[in-house]
Fold this sequence. Notes:
- The structure is a single chain.
- It is globular, with a radius of gyration of 14 Å.
- The termini are far apart.
- The chain has a five-stranded antiparallel beta sheet with strand order 1-2-3-5-4, covered by helices on one side.
- The chain has helices at residues 5-10, 58-74, and strands at 18-21, 25-29, 37-43, 82-84, 100-104.
- The protein has one domain (5-104): HIT family, subunit A.
- By secondary structure, the chain is α+β, with helices and mostly antiparallel strands.
- Zinc ion is lined by residues 4, 6-7, 46, 97.
- The site of zinc ion has 5 residues, from helix 1.
Amino acid sequence: MSECLFCEIVAHELDADIVHETANTLAFRDIHPVAPVHVLVIPKKHVASSQELGAATGELLAELFETIKTVAEHADVDAGHRLVTNVGAAAGQTVPHLHFHVIGGRPLSWPPG
Ligand code: AMP
Ligand code: ZN
């Protein structure tokens, strides 16, 4: 068993409500949704956070954003949603595997807490 929750989902060792999949990315519903639409988009490869992204991961990043776009379109929030990635415990990152929250389906206030 992997020690990373999201790597376990990628390996199908843990169930998830998967909404979209590509060769290198996975999108599944957040288990504790904060809005009618709350999907997590992750790379299948373990990447700890966006701090590990750069020129060398350009193709993966492009694929992640293609998945984010598709998820938003399928959920009918392409015209209005929030895209969030928390980096580190101080910002509220609880799962140390890069994930983008796609949140929408209700009015969203700003700034966040
Ligand atoms: P963050 O706090 O930014 O690291 O986000 C982690 C997110 O993962 C939280 O919104 C959790 O509700 C969500 N989460 C934790 N475990 C699972 C799981 N097994 N399936 C789906 N979402 C999960
Ligand atoms: Zn992982």
